[in-house]
Write a structure and sequence with these properties.
By secondary structure, the protein is mainly beta. About 5% of the residues lie in helices and about 40% in strands. The chain is built from three helices and 40 strands. Strands 30, 31, 32, 35, 36, 37, 38, 39 and 40 form a nine-stranded mixed β-sheet that branches. A seven-stranded antiparallel β-sheet has the order 5-6-7-8-20-15-14, with helices on one face. Strands 3, 4, 9, 17, 18 and 19 form a six-stranded antiparallel β-sheet that branches.
Length: about 600
């Protein structure tokens, strides 16, 4: 494919990008990879149905049929496809694959999308991950380092740019929430040019707006991840039964290239890439893809409405759900969207008055979901939303009543599905990444889990309501304590609080919202830390691994613990929060928000 601005070379019929020629560089992809299929490719990680927990099979999607779908003066679209039959069982993922590549006249880049289809009669399977990846030239974008606690993290010992010596580089440091993940890429300094992946829509990615995905690898590699278990675990792996019909379009995404002249600031390439991203977002859904499986704007629908919040212990009246995240996702229970991973989702953010508009929704049946920063819980409308081609639906005012039994006696944190507001330490100086010094995302620094034992050598956290400050006194993650090089122990944090009076026969409610859990067990005890049986146990929960992967959240959990008044006392009380699992430094939880509610008011 060649439009006079760039030239893209693909293997036929494989559908692998082997070369990208641009601005005097013969190939931006890794020419040292003798295996041409290891340059620019779509891939999957999958396993046969019923093999939960096993290591998936990595497979680059090599196709068998090539076809020119469209060839005009202003556009070309190529298809690389393959079928599947029973002779390929356990050899290739049981999907019909159709990879598309589009180039437009006058465009400094190219588009790619893919259509996956599972037909009736085909065997079940699990789809752990799928993405498009480009491995760029190491001599243009170099990086040299030695592995740390896991191979994806390296200490830069001999970088080409000596100012980076001694820093840590790690693919997880460049993860991003899908709602913010619109453009990312690499800048080459000689010659000064940029390689960018622009993702104009979230509709084809799983897990909702807060799902985190990778963007780049030490390598250098540029990715667009469509499905993954990162920061979520097994819950975000779609599992297809025998004969379960399924079809989904991933993309299109835009591979954008830009350059500046010698002597100009290469960092302006980033500003230009962000401007191009806005153009692509405004153009969504694209009008030019030829596949009938990608509906145009006129074939889609829109909804609008307003969301209010009613919490009688907060305000006597309904308030606007300012800044609420409102979305359409497949029918399910409240909050099910964060574990939904087979179909499409459409999200927006409400304005200060709670008004929202969701545009260009694919036809189908949905539930409307929402969550509101500042309030715990998930909202789901009782109304099924059916989107048809060209429809425009105005929904009457909706009212979210967050979980609440009684007035707030005290609270720790902010209910925003993140541990960002808590104390995040500086990293060990030998593991620093200068990018995240004095940065809002300082939690992306490597090795912060190791800091807990050194910062609290004589005992675990004791938080006193009314005296302690969660911004300084509440560590961002309840991790294990390192005993020696090979062993760890669980930790117990204390919350001390005073009650002037106690209603012995009434029920108090402890709300514990978690921002992350990684093979952890949360146990709650009240006023007696020695009892063998906790008042509450979460059981072993979570595989989001956000602690190791420098996240500030994974999947969200909300636990509501009823406390009989007779276990509380007038004066000083103590709640003990134990994270009991302790075989690894990466087991633990992050709290989002904790609240103790008194008994309900009686009218």
């Amino acid at each position: 494919m060649d439009n006079g601005i760039l030239q893209v070379t693909l293997l036929v019929p494989d559908g692998i990008v082997t070369g990208i020629k641009y601005n005097g560089v013969d190939n931006l992809l890794e020419i040292l990879n003798d295996d041409e299929t290891n340059r620019g490719y779509w891939d999957v990680v999958w396993s046969s149905g019923g093999t939960k927990g096993t290591t998936g099979i990595f497979e680059r999607l090599i196709c068998t049929t090539y076809k020119v779908i469209l060839e005009r003066d202003d556009q070309i679209e190529l298809s690389f496809s393959r079928a599947w039959d029973v002779s390929l069982q356990d050899k290739l993922i049981p999907l019909k694959i159709d990879k598309r590549f589009i180039m437009l006249k006058g465009s400094s880049g190219f588009y790619s999308y893919a259509i996956y289809e599972h037909l009736e009669g085909w065997p079940g399977f699990n789809l752990d991950e799928t993405r498009i990846a480009f491995k760029l030239r190491k001599d243009k974008l170099p990086d040299r380092g030695q592995p740390l606690a896991y191979p994806e993290a390296v200490l830069l010992v001999n970088p080409v740019e000596p100012e980076f010596k001694g820093e840590v580089d790690d693919k997880y440091q460049y993860s991003c929430e899908d709602k913010d993940l619109k453009v990312h890429g690499w800048i080459c300094m000689d010659p000064p040019l940029g390689f960018w992946i622009i993702i104009p829509s979230d509709e084809f990615r799983s897990g909702g707006p807060l799902k985190q995905n990778l963007t780049s690898h030490v390598g250098p590699t540029a990715l667009s991840v469509f499905l993954s278990a990162h920061y979520a675990g097994e819950d975000l792996v779609p599992k297809f039964g025998d004969g379960e019909p399924w079809k989904k379009v991933f993309g299109p995404v835009f591979i954008y290239l830009n350059y500046v002249n010698e002597g100009e600031d290469p960092l302006t390439l980033w500003e230009d890439a962000k401007e191009q991203m806005l153009i692509e977002v405004e153009s969504w859904p694209y009008s030019f893809p030829a596949s009938e499986d990608f509906p145009s704007s006129s074939q889609r629908g829109n909804i609008s409405g307003r969301l209010l919040v009613q919490d009688r212990y907060f305000k006597d009246y309904k308030i606007s759900a300012s800044g609420a995240y409102v979305g359409l996702a497949p029918p399910g229970e409240a909050g099910s969207w964060q574990r939904e991973c087979k179909d499409y989702q459409f999200w927006t953010k409400a304005d200060e008055e709670g008004y929202y508009v969701i545009s260009d929704i694919r036809a189908g049946d949905y539930n409307l979901y929402a969550f509101v920063p500042g309030f715990i819980g998930d909202y789901k409308s009782d109304i099924k939303v059916t989107i048809t081609s060209g429809c425009s639906i105005e929904i009457d005012d909706l009212v979210f009543e967050p979980p609440r039994n009684g007035p707030t006696l005290w609270e720790i944190g902010i209910p925003d599905r993140s541990a960002r507001e808590f104390y995040i330490p500086d990293p060990d100086p030998k593991y620093i990444n200068k990018l995240f010094v004095n940065h809002p995302d300082k939690f992306r620094q490597y090795g912060l889990w190791e800091r807990y034992t050194g910062l609290y050598p004589n005992g675990d956290i004791v938080f006193t309501v009314g005296e302690s400050d969660y911004k300084k006194d509440w560590f961002f993650a309840q991790v294990t304590r390192k005993r020696d090089e090979k062993t760890y122990i669980g930790t117990t944090w204390q919350i001390k609080f005073k009650l002037d009076s106690v209603k012995q026969k009434e029920i108090y409610t402890l709300r514990v919202a978690l921002a992350s859990a990684a093979q952890a067990e949360l146990q709650v005890r009240v006023n007696d830390s020695s009892t063998n049986t906790p008042l509450f146990s979460s059981g072993v929960i979570g595989k989001d691994n956000a602690i190791a992967r420098h996240g500030i959240h994974g999947l969200h959990w909300l636990f509501n613990v009823n406390l009989q008044g007779n276990i509380l006392v007038e004066g000083e009380n103590t709640i003990y929060l134990t994270q009991a699992n302790s075989t690894s430094p990466f087991q633990g939880i992050m709290y989002d928000y904790i609240r103790l509610e008194g008994p309900p008011y009686h009218d």
